[in-house]
Amino acid sequence: MNKPLILVVEDDKAVRNLISTTLDTQEYRYHVAKNGAQALVEAVSQRPDVIILDLGLPDMDGVEIIRKVRSWSQVPIIVVSARSEDRDKVTALDEGADDFLTKPFSVEELLARVRVSLRRVQYQNSNASENSAVFRNGGLTIDYASGCVSVDGKEIHLTPIEYKLLCLLSRNVGKVLTHNFILNEVWGNVMQSDVPSLRVFMATLRKKIEKNTSEPEYIQTHIGIGYRMLRIEENDK
């Protein structure tokens, strides 16, 4: 079986070489692109399994690349950028990026993000045939058909909003979902003023599914940005 193919889109030679060397040591296949135009050609022709994308490219903004790729592909996109403002992260994630890593970064963290993205795609592909009728993640089970949720074999009762939130997170396991995205999907609006309400519902949901809310196992908070459901591996249980 071929190793996953990673497309590295980075105009800075030193960073590009660092990422390429890191992928090489892990025996990933990779292609590199130095600008946006080349990145789009590579994305179409090579069909990579993951894209690692810098936002500050010489010919176009990385957000535009995300937007163009998302018009025809759901390939995981990990943004690696020097832009550290929350609004930059939110914009990239709202446009369809899966994750955001701020420069400078550790190669170990980058590799971990790549593994998370690949596992998410593998999980989605393996469940496509059964239309993901039942979601299992560690001790959490969601039966979408019946609307039943259980943790460690014990059924828990959720409000309609809590259930919608949990289903949305589970169907995007491993992906960071912004406040705006969640508000739009669950409530049908993107009013920033509703974020405090979202936090309240997320807190009550956590109390029902997490063993320890101060050290959540399932739902990770990205302060100022949104939430992500973590994929729990069998050897983590």
UniProtKB/TrEMBL annotation:
Where is the Response regulatory domain positioned along the sequence? 5-118
Cellular location(s)? Cytoplasm
GO molecular function per UniProt: cis-regulatory region sequence-specific DNA binding; identical protein binding; phosphorelay response regulator activity
Q: Which domain of life is it from?
A: Bacteria
Residues annotated as domain OmpR/PhoB-type: 132-231
Which CDD domains does the UniProt record give? Answer: REC_OmpR_KdpE-like, trans_reg_C
**Keywords, alphabetical:** Cytoplasm, DNA-binding, Phosphoprotein, Transcription, Transcription regulation, Two-component regulatory system
Where is it predominantly found?
Answer: cytoplasm
Q: Which SMART domains match?
A: REC, Trans_reg_C
Which residues are reported to carry the modification 4-aspartylphosphate? 54
* Pfam families the UniProt entry points to: Response_reg, Trans_reg_C
GO BP terms in the entry = positive regulation of DNA-templated transcription
Instruction: Tell me the DNA-binding residue spans.
Output: 132-231
Q: Which GO terms describe its cellular component?
A: cytosol; protein-DNA complex
Recorded hits in PANTHER family, A to Z, give: KDP OPERON TRANSCRIPTIONAL REGULATORY PROTEIN KDPE, REGULATOR OF RPOS
Q: What does this protein do?
A: May play the central regulatory role in sporulation. It may be an element of the effector pathway responsible for the activation of sporulation genes in response to nutritional stress. Spo0A may act in concert with spo0H (a sigma factor) to control the expression of some genes that are critical to the sporulation process.
| This protein's name | Stage 0 sporulation protein A homolog
